[in-house]
Predict the structure.
Amino acid sequence: MSALLTAQLTHLAPIDILILVLYYVLVIFVGFYVKRATNTSEQFFLAGREMTAWIAGLSFVSANLGSLELMGWAGSAYQYGILAAHWYWIGAIPAMLFLGIVMMPFYYISKTHSVPGYLQLRFGEEARALSAVSFGLMTILMSGVNMYAMALVMKVILGWNINFSIWIGAVTVTVYVMLGGLRSAIINEVVQFVLIWAGAALVPILGLIEAGGWNNLKAQIAHNVGNPSYTHMWSTLGHFHSNPMGVNWTGIIFGLGFVVSFGYWTTDFLVVQRVLSAHNLRAAKMAPVIGAAFKMAVPFIVILPGLICLGLTSHGHPVYHLVGQNAVDAAHPYSYNEVLPLMLIRYCGPGLLGLGITALVAGFMSGMDGNISAFSTVWTYDIYKAFINKRATDRHYVLMGRISTLAGMVISVATAYLVADAASIMDYVQALFSFFIAPLFGSVVLGMLWKRATSAGGFWGLLAGTVSSISMFTYTRLGGERALAHIAFSSDAQPMAETLYRALWSWLICVTVTIVVSLMTTPKPEAELVGLVYGATEIPDDGATDLWHKPIFWAVIVIVVFFILNLIFF
Amino acid sequence: MAEGTGRGEMLSIWFFVGALTLTYGLVLLPYGAWEWFGHHEPPTVLNNLHPTFWWGLLLTLFGATYSTRYRPRREDIDKV
């Protein structure tokens, strides 16, 4: 990686090391502390289903707030401007609210332990097997990618040895997840969420002061890049060539806002597992709504630092000139991905720097623990218990959860070293995730909302959507710009558009195949669909007694704020 | 019941949040004061605003509020 060629950016003072060590001590303590309340499989894999809406909601949004994502999107904000905020707003908020209000009742009342588990109840063992195996593989690989990314960041920023970073991250996460299971992961994710804000919020505050406020920053960005399009979210989306990202509004609304977003937030078990830990139906519905409210604020600490880096000037010239990873050289030593560390170093001296670095470390560990705890659940419930050992004791399954946590981490470490040897593997591993998410959303949403969907329809639709996504990915890798133009229907489309349109087409193929095959096969009797499908299920009362307790009321508030924010930055 | 850490446990998840932020505040606040009043400001942009001191103070107040509000109580300890 070219970033490795650069010298380390800074070093830690003793006070920074103290702050980092205190964090590790707390994390390990939490693992030991909650172990005594983690004895049954329900406690280990679903945290005893006793979390409040606030805890489940913060954990839900925090599990997605890994440092790979924080640093990547801060870099994207520098590269593409405020358009990157779409991934936090239209690319998250409507889907999170849909999960809470429409889908959560079915996940919750079916008492499933996982998303593949729901597919088994609705479509049978084949759909569960396909979903569980692909999800298990992806989570374990993603955990390895996170581990390597953390090691690389620590090497670039602090000059730490790669082996040291990989092993200290792996051992710490393994210890606290093996001891406390999902409960331990959730507690650490909530602490990490607070820590990320404590460590990162000062950067945009001081950045805005230095830039002279938002209006001055906008003017400086327009001056630095030569046009005003970098600070508008919608007015530049009329055509592929009129915005820095090379996408248009159909890709953002239908590709990102509908398929990618709904696919990730409603069917990726890594995040859904957090909500399943809620202690009652109202908490399960409220958790995604609370998560959505906090998600809307995240661009303040991720997108804004990227924009500040883009807009800072000194004597009329940009302070920073960042380039893509492959263009780093002696004249341009920093890449887009280094926006957050550069901004931290600019404003934070000893102590505050340690807090910022600890926030990044916490973010990486959260990315690892989310993947590992989800892997351990899906392996134990949907592969081991479903196909290998159906009649073991509850105690045995908890032991299997702990063993699979350890085994998963060993495979993740191997993946991290594999990625270290061949960096291009990292791009492919991240792309692999996108193969399954969009079709999975097609299968789950049809399964929940359409009684006529059959087991055969669900399986073949999921398979067809996944295969078509892989085929389109291969086609654009081999066919270059011409292939991309076919997928996105425009010769001006940029690589970012490929992800959005590929997701859209693979979802449509999944839905079409599911519908056609379902109409050709025999549906389940309605009695077997109770608790699984809209129209066959009486949704139980969530216990909200007045307006202030109703999840739908707060969902409306969140969606109104969402529209106002989009109008302000139109 | 202490929220989030299991039935009958003494420490709530919010206590952990408060304890960590309070500890960080108590580390940063005196260090920031030493930087400010001892004229040891680091060579960072806007160091004249003394961010370490003010951020340390904010974390101390936030952490103290949460640690107090969610501190282990007698009745919780008796349940264990």
User: Anything to note?
Assistant: Chain B touches chain A at residues 3-9, 11, 13, 16-17, 19-21, 23-24, 27-28, 31-32, 35, 41-47, 49, 51-52, 55-56, 59 (CB under 8 Å).
